[in-house]
Design a protein that fits this description.
About 50% of the residues lie in helices and about 15% in strands. Helix 1 crosses helix 3. The radius of gyration is 23 Å and the shape is elongated.
Amino acid sequence: MSDSRLRVLREVLLSRDKGATAEELAAALGVTRTAVIQQLATLERDGLVMVSGRRHTGGRPSRTYALTDAGRETFPRRYALFAASLLKHARDLFGEEGLAALLDKMAKELAADALPRLEGMRGRDRRAEVVKILNELGYEAVLTDDGAIEAVNCVFSRVARESRTACRFDTVLLAGLLGEQVSQVSCLADGGGCCRFDPG
């Protein structure tokens, strides 16, 4: 995304619930109203901003713009830091067994939500769809020629370095999605080139 669009998005974010008009955005950014309207049209087309209302500014009512949920997600959020802290404290409070139970529950719930997408699918087709689901979650996974699943982005990397219990989430999730047992034979946290999961 271009710098100018990011600046417009940031100003819309700062307007909070009241929204911002093109005129207000132009004044805040020191650019012309026409330039802002062009950027807003593109951001609206991409689903990052929406018209949230109208505001009377003396003349004709002006449209106000607000961020969509997708627009809010373009800003950095420290989910990894939060997740790592949450899992660390869960382990401190409930021990490895409690952490394992928590991760199992989370993985099974996530798998159950995705199962309708896999209905009627078997074999390699099912595994290919599971890889798509993993990639939507940020795993950067591929299906290998021999039917294994390899992921190069560990979603629990910080926690996995301290405790392999975090890796349990992946195997329980995959078992739930594939409908068969899964064994993890390689781990990024151990210095491997990927996390490799062999179904069956």
